[in-house]
Amino acid sequence: MANDRDTTLHQMILSEIEGRIVSGEWPPGFRLPFEVDLAEHYGCSRMTVNKVMTQLSKAGLIERHRKAGSFVTKPRAQSAILELHDIAAEVKSLGLPYAYTLIARKERPSNAEDRRLMELAETTPMVELLAVHQAGGRPFCVEERRINAGVVPEAAQADFSTNPPSSWLIAQVPWSAAENRIQAVAASTEIARLLEQPKGTACLVVERRTWNHAGPVTFVRLNYPGGRHTLVARFTPEQR
User: In the chain, what are the domains?
Assistant: First the structure.
């Protein structure tokens, strides 16, 4: 019974502290109560609290400093410049719960901007999507995507209301080439609203195009709040 009680206490303490961090009640930089104080507050052993803090540290939610205490970290996503990554996996790697909301979907013929962005030679059916990815209940990334339904006709029937287009495309459509373009952009009124940031907030914007043997597959613009995202690339001298 004692073991069951310790397990229940561990889960309760973990959920409560994690909830305060994810909700923003304990913001980045906040110093958590010392372990001895938490143990007294919850009426448990210090070992139980230490296990909780260890788990929170491994999840990247807190930083532990000897003598100074434990502090809430500022989650920073790291996406590889040279890879096509799944945003859901990226969020989960931070130890935060992931959520996805489709804001708008349009099926239409390609326009001049589509043809410029995707190097389309002629009018072709398109699927246009606007979605928000969340991490820990907060907007993490706004996704603006255009899919060439002439090359990927399955996109017209795909249910993107529950299935994020990034993971669907990675799983369903083979690609042979990709191009990334990274820039800093001031958030437009709409993007700022969706990111819950002031208009003009500096955003890190990743624009990506992919192709396969049949032609251009998709163009996507990923808008991240600049202060919460880092781009990382690892390469060797042999890579050109």
Answer: 2-72 (1.10.10.10), 77-232 (3.40.1410.10)
